[in-house]
Amino acid sequence: MTATMSQAAAVQSTDPLHLIDVDHVQFYVGNAKQAAFFYAHCFGFQIEQVSDLTTGARDATHFLLTQGNIRFILTSALTAAHPAAMEVAMFGDGVKDVAFTVFDAVKAYERAIKNGAESAYEPRVFKDDTGTVTMAGIKTYGRVNHSFVSRTGAYELSKVKAGGLFKTKFKKMESGLGGGASGGGNGGIVSINEHNRKNPCGLKYVDHLVGNVELGQMNRWVKFYEDVLEFKMFMHFDDKDISTEYSALMSKVMSSGNGLIKMPINEPAAGKKKSQVQEYLDWHQNTPGVQHLALRTDDELHSIAALRARGVDFLTLPDAYYENVWKRVDAMLTQHGHTPVREDHEAIKRLGILVDADDEGYLLQLFTKPLQDRPTLFFEIICRRGAQSFGKGNFKALFEALELEQGKRGNL
Hints:
Layout: H1 2-14, E1 21-28, H2 32-43, E2 46-51, E3 60-67, E4 70-77, H3 83-91, E5 94-101, H4 105-114, E6 119-128, E7 131-139, E8 145-153, H5 157-161, E9 171-172, E10 179-181, E11 189-191, H6 192-198, E12 203-212, H7 218-227, E13 232-237, E14 248-255, E15 262-269, H8 276-282, E16 289-297, H9 300-309, H10 321-335, H11 345-351, E17 354-358, E18 361-367, E19 378-385, H12 395-409
Parallel strand pairs: 1-4, 5-8, 12-15, 16-19
Antiparallel strand pairs: 1-5, 2-3, 2-9, 3-4, 6-7, 7-8, 10-11, 12-16, 13-14, 14-15, 17-18, 18-19
């Protein structure tokens, strides 16, 4: 057993495109300080570190937000020349880079370029006396890049997870960005970070990230992930799977070689009215991008209740959904020898959570409304009890809920 594991580790360490983790997800935003407060207050993220004028950064401000194994970098431009300035004007806040930790960023970049990738930026080394961070990036669909990141010394990922500095020119945030008078009459300030530590939302890591591309372009990007990043197709859905009376889309789920990273790719399909993918493209300058991030929790009921209490807006399902869901889900679980859904059914209904099952178990999921004024980026909160699918049984109910929101916005 030990020899087999050692051999597998050796193979992985010599594979340039072996992806160890989602190193971070970078967002370009209009005001990083305000965005940091929004994600901290509404979703329970810790505002851990900052890189700005006070740390020697001259062109952009970056905030590191963390929760579990999730790391967000929120970037806003300090100069008109920084690419975030133009992109935010064109697209609004959104995902710019999905970065992967690898053993050697230079070798990963060189393999991807050899496989046909277009360079976003050549290898860069950020170093000081304590360690190095090496980064190199390739272009993917639309505005999105993938960066390869390798770390040494004090900047190793394990040390970043333990609270170490993310990169050079970052400093730790000692007290967060806001707070209020504490109880007890001592006149102290309770920071948002302290509040979040005492009242966790329970989000653990990025389960998957979904990209929207133009009509007819899904297979092109599937081939890109197969050829360039050496992913495999994990699952696919066509317009018969994901449709209502009015709208439809098609989706293929790409998976890294080790199965750690999952990247579904959506394109619109013909329907009587406009799909959610086409609405995204219409309000994103017809440019592909990341539509949503699915964030994993081990306790869906706790996380959704905590997020609702913080003011997060979720899609609303009709009561009729719960008249049929338990029969469908229980039949699937029984068929494959799994125990029924253990969470309280009435609590699931009260919190508006969707439920689905496959041959490996069940999942609980719920989708936020768009996170900013443009109907583009949103989050999914997902809990897996064995299921490895993406909620196929919920697609119709989800689309109908989305269509109600599209109708309110005049975009259906």
